[in-house]
Each structure stands twice: as structure tokens, then as C-alpha cells.
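A reminder from the course coordinator: this example appears on the midterm review sheet, so study it carefully.

Given structure:
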């Protein structure tokens, strides 16, 4: 027992040991436990009390909020380096705890397009996935059911599907309607956004209550978070040990399997958890880091576990944000909703395409471009709460000031994909250590010319739409000023060739027969879609293979 009274000693040899309890790990654990297998989940962070979420929201909207107050990220435990061309602010958008980053995510869940799985074949760049959209299609449907997705089949560019969404889509917001009129005149189709949040009561959780603080916290529980799936895994018989960061995986003497996961507990002790199968679902950075920390030259893994190809840590990708903001001479009612309700994939599969519309349309481009999507933001402009709390006026004077500063802002955004490159990588920084003396992760990240051209194309289209809307464009997010969407992908990529990747199409490492990796780190390419639904679909696919093996 540790000081909080929880038993964190290892179980006797179990069927499966899962590292991480975000959406990937929680889904694998739930599936295996429901099938009657003995499962232990090791989670580095705590099990947060849901009753505290209203207080977390209150902290988040205070002007002094610095990003780390809500979920306790930062300090020696979460130290990192970033020595690439661009600083990568890793702690800005990750959570260590039961539920992982779904505790504070935006909640958008799109399927990748068919061409995203065959980027080398279609565009001659990157690599093809060792599986197709059709291979993942049934697991996408299962993932939408597992997360609880509100959506509509109104996207003419989306990949094919048969089954309806679990819940009806959210209605487009008021500002979405303004954008839709301008887009129609330019020949740009708009459509709803699939959201992993309840548009009606579902799965024991309420419909969205409209707090508008979806990121960093949903106080009502209407937005899906993986702690609910972790609960279901425990109810099915899994054992979840929180505050148990895994320090390394121990390979067998011949290096062909994993024998144990070594984890630490708050009392300063280390323990070994043995299992028949191991699943690492620790996120896009911590998964490759754990493999690198598990290097064992005596047992055939001198450069890190499962790293005979040299691809552990390499091929790191993220999505880039590009956007334009301004004002209209009328109320836009933005900041009333904390999530997206409309977007456009009109240029996703053909980013250089021209459009035709009543007002001339969008001109085409012959440049070599990658996929991107357009987003119509519902949270533009300053927060009225922050404006009020910072103001020196009170009463009617405060109201007059707020009306002048808030309510006419409007903005667009978009996500742009980047290709996997070996120089973009996650390595270990031996000059800095965490609270257990392990080298911290070093994220080396940069942009390539193709990504920057794609960003410029996406921004040009956004500015044209804003001007068609009649907005005064006051700010833009350009390639020079962009940042990541915090969708860490690619650093343990999936590839049919063991010499060119880390895991195969069933998410099992090429070199260790009982070690699987799930999460966005296995993506060979990233497309430009938010990755969580694909993470969940791959986790369910992996679980189906493990059930057969066990």
C-alpha cells in the first residue's frame, strides 16, 4: 500500500499489461477485459475526481490561468527538451492521468480520407499505410459507437460509410450561417463536424450544457473522455494502477519478447509487472521515449526496444494551424460555443482545385500541395469573462465597454498536414532528467517547403472567404507564426517492411512478438484530420488481434 491507501503492487502474471489509459489504452483494456482476459493498466498520472471539474473550469477562465493549472502538467515529472528548428511546446496540450489528453481535447472526430492511406501512390510523397480505408472501415464504425459521436452524412467529400452516426449532429452556429453564405457564393461547400460530445443524453452522460470551456475542461461530462472507457474496463474486470509511470520494458534473454514492465510508485519503489502480451499506448512522444529508454544491448536491442529499423522516434509529425481573424459590422455571436460545428473538406483531396461560384469562386493552384481542411471557428476574439475581470469599470460603464470590445469578432482556421521526415524526431536528452532520473524526451521539429506552401494556400482561401463575408481581416496565422495542433504522430510508424518501420498492420512490433503499440505514433502519414477517431479505430483493431492470440 502507498500513502493514499491504494494497492500498487503488481498482479501475478496476467494476460495483458497496457501502458497508458488514454483512448487507445482504455479501449484495448476494455475489449480484452470484456472478453474475459486478465488485464492490468499502468497509468503514469492520477485518477482525477470528476466532481472537481467545475472547479477546474473556474480556474481555466481566470485571467491568471497559465495552462498548467487545470490538469497539473509541468515540473520535473513532465520536463522535456526541444532542440529542433522550431520550439515544440509539448506540455501545452498533454495530460498525464486516467483519460489522457481526452480530458482536455476539442472533441472533433473525423475519419481519414481514402487517399490518406495511400499518399505515396497518389502523390508520390511519404509512404503508403500497410492497410487501407476499407480495412479500417468497420473499426471506424465501432470507434464512433464507443466514443459516442454526433454527426450527419452531409459531407460530400467524406469517405464512404453505411451506418448512421450514434447521435444527430449539432446544429450549425449563428456565425457558421454567416460563413456558409459567403462560401456558397464562392463555390466552397460547407458541412457539419462530427463531434465526440453528446447532442442528446447518451451513455449515461448529459447533453452538452454549453459551458463553452471544452478545452481545457468539460464540466458537464457531455464531451467524451477516456476515463469513462477506463471505468468500463475496470467494471469488466481490468485492474488500473494510477500514478505508476513505466520506467522501461524488459526484453527476454533472446530479445524476442517482453518479459515485464518496470514501473515506479509514489513511495519510491519499483515493481515488475509480467504479462503474456504488452500494449504501449502512452501517447505520440512517451511511446517512442519508452522504447528508447528500454534499450538493452545484451538482449539484442542496443538502440532501443523494437528499433532495429532505426525508425523509433523518427518520422515525427504534427498538424499545423493556419488562420485568419477580423471583425464584421454586426454581431457574430462567437464565443457562445466552445467547439466547431461547421467545416469544409472541399480542398482536402485536391488542394489546388479551383471553384466556381456566383462571385467568381476560388482560383486554382499548380503548386505541389498537401491536404488541408478549413474550419469555421466559434471561439474568436477576446473572452468576455477575461475582459470583464481585467476592466477597471463597473456597472453600465463596464457593459458599454464590453459591447464595444466583444461580439463582432469572427475567425477561420484550418489544419495542414506535413510529411514524415527522418530529421523530425523524438530522442532522449541525457543532459536533463525527470523525477526518476530518466533522460527527458527531446522533440526535434521543423517544417518543410511543401507544408509551408500548403499553409499559404489555405490562408489565401480563408482570407478570400473572410473578405467575401465583408469582414475586416485584422490578423493572420502564417507559416512563420504557426504552431502545432498538438497531434503528435509518426514516431513509431506502421510499415509492412521491418526495415522501414516499427509495427506491422496489426500494430505488433516487428521484433517482439508480444509487444503492440497503439496510438497516433503508429501513423505512417498524418493527413490533416484530427487523429483521435483513427487512434480509437486502430486500438479496436489491435484488440481484435490480441483477443484471437490470447
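Designed residues:
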Amino acid at each position: 500500500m502507498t500513502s493514499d491507501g491504494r494497492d500498487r503492487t503488481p498482479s501475478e502474471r496476467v494476460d495483458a499489461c497496457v501502458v497508458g489509459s488514454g483512448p487507445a489504452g482504455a479501449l484495448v483494456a476494455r475489449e480484452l477485459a470484456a472478453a474475459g482476459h486478465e488485464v492490468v493498466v499502468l497509468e503514469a498520472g492520477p485518477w482525477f475526481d470528476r466532481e472537481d471539474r467545475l472547479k477546474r473550469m473556474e480556474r481555466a477562465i481566470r485571467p491568471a490561468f497559465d495552462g498548467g493549472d487545470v490538469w497539473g502538467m509541468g515540473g520535473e515529472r513532465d520536463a522535456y527538451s526541444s532542440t529542433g528548428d522550431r520550439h515544440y511546446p509539448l506540455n501545452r496540450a498533454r495530460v498525464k492521468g486516467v483519460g489522457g489528453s481526452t480530458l482536455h481535447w476539442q472533441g472533433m472526430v473525423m475519419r481519414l480520407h481514402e487517399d490518406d492511406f495511400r499518399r505515396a501512390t497518389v502523390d508520390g510523397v511519404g509512404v503508403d499505410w500497410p492497410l487501407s480505408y476499407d480495412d479500417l472501415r468497420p473499426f471506424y464504425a465501432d470507434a464512433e459507437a464507443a466514443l459516442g459521436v454526433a454527426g450527419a452524412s452531409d459531407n460530400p467529400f467524406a469517405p464512404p460509410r453505411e451506418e448512421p452516426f450514434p447521435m444527430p449532429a449539432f446544429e450549425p452556429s449563428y456565425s457558421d450561417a454567416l460563413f456558409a453564405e459567403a462560401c456558397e457564393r464562392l463555390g466552397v461547400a460547407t458541412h457539419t463536424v462530427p463531434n465526440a460530445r453528446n447532442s442528446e443524453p447518451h451513455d449515461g452522460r448529459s447533453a452538452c450544457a454549453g459551458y463553452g470551456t471544452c478545452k481545457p475542461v468539460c464540466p458537464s461530462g457531455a464531451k467524451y473522455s477516456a476515463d469513462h472507457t477506463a471505468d468500463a474496463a475496470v467494471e469488466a474486470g481490468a485492474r488500473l494502477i494510477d500514478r505508476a509511470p513505466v520506467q522501461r520494458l524488459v526484453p527476454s534473454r533472446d530479445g524476442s519478447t517482453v518479459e515485464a514492465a518496470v514501473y515506479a510508485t509514489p513511495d519510491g519503489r519499483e515493481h515488475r509487472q509480467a504479462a503474456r502480451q504488452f500494449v504501449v499506448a502512452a501517447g505520440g512522444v512517451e511511446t517512442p521515449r519508452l522504447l528508447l529508454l528500454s534499450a538493452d544491448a545484451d538482449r539484442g536491442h542496443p538502440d532501443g526496444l523494437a528499433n532495429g529499423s532505426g525508425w523509433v522516434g523518427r518520422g515525427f509529425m504534427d498538424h499545423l494551424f493556419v488562420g485568419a481573424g477580423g471583425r464584421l459590422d454586426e454581431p457574430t455571436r462567437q464565443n457562445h460555443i466552445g467547439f466547431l460545428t461547421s467545416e469544409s473538406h472541399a480542398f482536402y483531396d485536391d488542394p489546388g482545385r479551383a471553384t466556381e461560384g456566383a462571385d467568381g469562386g476560388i482560383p486554382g493552384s499548380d503548386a505541389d500541395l498537401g491536404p488541408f481542411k478549413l474550419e469555421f471557428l466559434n471561439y474568436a476574439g477576446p473572452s468576455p469573462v477575461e475582459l470583464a475581470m481585467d476592466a477597471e469599470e463597473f456597472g453600465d460603464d463596464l457593459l458599454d465597454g464590453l459591447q464595444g470590445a466583444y461580439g463582432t469578432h469572427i475567425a477561420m482556421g484550418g489544419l495542414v498536414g506535413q510529411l514524415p521526415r527522418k530529421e523530425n524526431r523524438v530522442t532522449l536528452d541525457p543532459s536533463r532528467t525527470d523525477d526518476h532520473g530518466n533522460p527527458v524526451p527531446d522533440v526535434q521539429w521543423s517544417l518543410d517547403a511543401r507544408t509551408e506552401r500548403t499553409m499559404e494556400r489555405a490562408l489565401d482561401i480563408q482570407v478570400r472567404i473572410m473578405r467575401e463575408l465583408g469582414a475586416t481581416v485584422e490578423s493572420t496565422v502564417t507559416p512563420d507564426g504557426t504552431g502545432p495542433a498538438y497531434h503528435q504522430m509518426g514516431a513509431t510508424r506502421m510499415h509492412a517492411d521491418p526495415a522501414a518501420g516499427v509495427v506491422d498492420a496489426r500494430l505488433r512490433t516487428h521484433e517482439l512478438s508480444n509487444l503492440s503499440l497503439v496510438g497516433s505514433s503508429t501513423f505512417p502519414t498524418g493527413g490533416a484530420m484530427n487523429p483521435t477517431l483513427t487512434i480509437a479505430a486502430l486500438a479496436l483493431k489491435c484488440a481484435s488481434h490480441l483477443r484471437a492470440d490470447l
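The chain is about 25% helix and 15% strand. Residues 159 and 234 are 34 Å apart (CA to CA).
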